[in-house]
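anyone seen this seq b4? input:
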Amino acid sequence: MDDTSVASGHLADEAATLQLGSRIASVLRGGVQLQLHGDLGAGKTTFTRGLLQGLGHQGRVKSPTYTLVESYPLPIFSVHHFDLYRFNDPEEWYDAGFADYFADDTVCIIEWPNKAAGVLPAPDLVLELDVAGDGRNYRLHAHSETGQACLNRFMTHCAAS
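predicted toks r here
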């Protein structure tokens, strides 16, 4: 992918991270896999909360650190939020049956995808979050044609805002 395959910026606070999630929600389609990278406390779950709120989810958004996956059936598609931090071996992905969650009518968001390296399907989008002072820096990369289409809509949406 070329230079148009990346969007980046600064998130001053938690509200900005939630807003980023909501903006990305507006450009997603079913079948997308979004991988989240960042250290502990970088804002991955906060981002996901904003994304789910942007899709109309009204309830609580729990971190799937202990359950490994939290699912949210929404009118447009289902969202499956994975947290693989506790994986000790990538093969646990298969043992848990998580491959069955990926479908054209779902969006899969994966925290700590490196814990299942080599067994996860290729992502459509990758979001990197890095602590920067009191805020966060983000980089959103497209890794497929579907991801590029989402990223193009995101960049058009941001330019119009």
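The beta strands are 6-11, 33-37, 69-73, 78-83, 106-111, 125-132, 135-142. The radius of gyration is 15 Å. kinda curious what u guys think
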